[in-house]
Design brief:
heterodimer; A: mainly beta; 5-stranded antiparallel β-sheet; 26 strands; 7% helix; 41% strand; B: mainly beta; 7-stranded antiparallel β-sheet; 5-stranded mixed β-sheet; 3 helices; 11% helix; 43% strand
Chain lengths: 342, 274
Amino acid sequence: MNRKEFLHHSLLTATGCFLAPGILNKSPIVLGHGAKKYQLRTDWCRADPENHPVNDAHEMVIDQKGFLYLLTNETRNNIIVFNKDGRVVDSWGHEFPGAHGLSIHNENGTEYLYITDTSKHEVYKTDLKGRIHMTISCPEYPELYSSKDEFVPTETAIADNGAIYIADGYGKDYILQFNANGQFIQSFGGRGAAAGNLLNAHGVCIDRRNPSRHLLWVSSRQEQAFKVFTLGGHHQFTVPLPGAWVCRPVIQGKYLYAAVLQSDNRQWQESGFITILDENHHVVSNPGGTDPGKDAANPLPMYQTIKAFKYPHDVCVDNDDNLYVAQWNSGKVYPYLLEPVL
Amino acid sequence: MEFWESIPLFTRTCFMTRNPWSILFILLATTAWSQQNLQLAPPLIIPNSVYFSTFSTVEIQFNRSTSNIYYKVASEKKASRWKKYRKPINVPKSAVIETFVKEKGLIDSEISGIAIFKQGIPIKSINISPPPDDKYPGSGERSLHDHTGGYISIQYPTWCGFNTGPIDIKIELESKKKIQKILVHCLDHPGAWIHMPSHIEIIDQNKTALNCSKISEIRASSTRPGNTAVVVQLESEYLSSSLHLRVYPLAVIPEAYPGAGQKAWLFIDEVNIY
């Protein structure tokens, strides 16, 4: 070893010794509260933006085989399919410029996707390879809509009998019920001051936690609440979520998960987080947000405390309780992973 | 060969030396690089009133027990240093309160702030022409001297929103007073196309503009959107029981702001006269 090499090695060694203690002591940031704590992995997705670009990463679902379907309004690939390692295994879809809502439903052993398009004002039922099997447009009922463009569907939920519930969350805030063949049955919700009215009915899902009584959960996002209906459209109760602009509810096991687009106190300032409710409809954890507190009857105003997310738009939960978070208007990022901390 | 060349030269050199310390350094540096440096969000500032007669009690909230809140208060003549927040603070003067949070292992939050204002000469009535836009009517003319509101939220119902101008604000005082200074409280929220006025005139009873100058803006400088007061100073004291302000909204939103080229909105909540 000559003098130059000696100096080189010495410099690197000294720098390594100086940095090592600080680096090794740095513990990962844990998000969430109580039994629902997570470690954030922003690098979960291994997609190449050149080959599989995203614009707004709107929603995600998981199929029975464990593949994750991401819906984006990037028409080079409206759907990108990932395995749980974050590798792309498939992609398709060029015809959904306003791709917004994505649901999955098992129909007699075959899984179908339901895609809402806010630009084309339509809802599409496709198979897992993107073949369209049904299209639902604005119902022709003048008392509801004077033009097709007033119908701006953001989400769907499919009941066990095949009934399709469409949330008109960027339109007139109705929940529209169709039968399995796409025939219009009825509407409920809509704007107004009554308990069953909605303001920005952004998301909808079927709650099957009580097998004998399925319920329909709807986000009334600007009102910062979930509103719960019977499958016949009768309002049952409201779950206030002060401060939280909640997107669609996602139920897995006994918990309900939702992306919170933003905190009410910092609107349009990238102030989103995730919220988790237990089977009693009490907030038990807010990854990236405030401690829910102990007094479930009087929920504290919720808001972002750590800038882990910008505008989270949907949460997908797998069987291992991993959360995959899709984000709107957040720099075209791929979904982030929240791994449970045991 | 391609894989090897894709590795940065510095890293390749370290591995080629086969020095274990060099390799350890690279591994540690890589670990550090992949660690997340997350930033705290700013805390909430909650004054019991933005407009007050004797003092305002300001509470700062950040519901995360492992973080510490810091704040400072800057009035017209004096600015405090950063202090650790322990309990609500009473502020007896018009001031700007700024705050941030700190926690080991996380990046400090941005500084957020709010301005609060001591009430001025009592106002008997205000007449506004043209009236506020239907979408943002506030509570009518009363909004501008009801000592409520001032919060940084478009939805807060005390903001009167205008999308046309100029706006004539005619003020009747309860009695004849010496007037030196006028504060017009506006919302500064460029992201929502809401901008500060381009200028303000004070017109006397002969309908001629008085000599006055905009001397400053009272605002939490770090915060946008923010509640801001435009301070207009008369060159000489003006003895009167009435006052006529003409407020000019920004005619065109400048480049680099959302809505560039469109008419700007002007949101006014309160007028204070000193």
